[in-house]
Design a protein that fits this description.
Blueprint (H helix, E strand, L loop, with lengths): L2 H6 L11 H14 L4 E7 L7 H4 L5 E10 L9 E3 L11 E7 L8 H11 E12 L16 H11 L2 E7 L3 H15 L4 H21 L14 E7 L4
């Protein structure tokens, strides 16, 4: 399976126990939002651009894709290079923004969200995901784990409206994800990892099947991550 397939066709295998749930839940949330995409789409923190072909395919009505990432990123050369602060695009120049697993890496979220609303056209949509239950990654550039309340505050302060959130996974998905992360990332001998991964594979599959992402965010809730949309006000 090539890199793009791990994002667009994630499978629950013994080797993919740590990434399956996060990849599949993000993909599902993104597919729900595709009909809202049109015109020019900016993919901020695009990395390997795994969703490029997806957002250029119906039911998305996107006509042009722009991948934006840091100049010295560890992935591939983007369409546009970014200093992490100022987006090199004119005001009101894109119709939609894609930001998957990006905001947790931004040391100044207020600045980034203000830049996103600047480059969006009036009525433009922002789609985003952030992790909640995930290990330290891209160290030392791992800054935050957001709750929906903090995200809403940042987005409203930047000027967004019609802000909506969804949990990417609930209690069962959270347990499955922790099992997957433990067996695939905890230091252990390779043979032990292989055996435990095979033994725990049906457990993870069962928990993923049983999971029902919560509709509302409430006290003592456990979630794997958050997806959401926000709109730049129309003129």
């Amino acid at each position: 399976m090539n890199l793009q397939e791990t994002f667009l066709n994630p499978r629950c295998t013994a080797e993919n126990l740590d990434r399956f749930l996060v990849r599949s839940s993000i993909l599902s949330a993104l597919k729900e939002t595709l009909p809202s995409f049109c015109g020019t789409l900016l993919d901020i923190g695009c990395g390997y651009m795994p969703y490029k072909q997806l957002v250029l395919t119906p039911p998305s009505r996107t006509e042009k894709y722009i991948g934006l990432d840091l100049k010295d990123n560890a992935y591939q050369k983007p369409d546009l290079e970014w200093d992490g602060i100022t987006i090199p695009l004119a005001d009101s120049s894109v119709d939609c923004v894609l930001a998957t697993e990006v905001f947790e890496h931004c040391p100044e979220p207020k600045v980034v969200m203000s830049e996103l609303i600047r480059v969006l056209k009036p009525g433009g949509i922002l789609f985003f995901t952030v992790p909640f239950l995930w290990p330290l990654h891209d160290v030392p550039h791992d800054e935050y784990r957001y709750t929906p309340y903090a995200l809403e505050r940042h987005l409203r302060n930047a000027g967004f409206e019609q802000i909506n959130f969804k949990a990417l996974g609930g209690w069962d998905a959270s347990l499955a994800q922790m099992i997957g992360l433990w067996v695939r990332r905890r230091p252990m001998p390779p043979r032990k990892r292989t055996i435990l991964s095979m033994l725990l594979l049906p457990v993870v599959r069962l928990l993923a099947k049983l999971d029902m992402p919560p509709i509302e965010f409430s006290e003592s809730l456990m979630i794997t991550g958050i997806s959401g949309t926000a709109i730049k006000p129309s003129l």
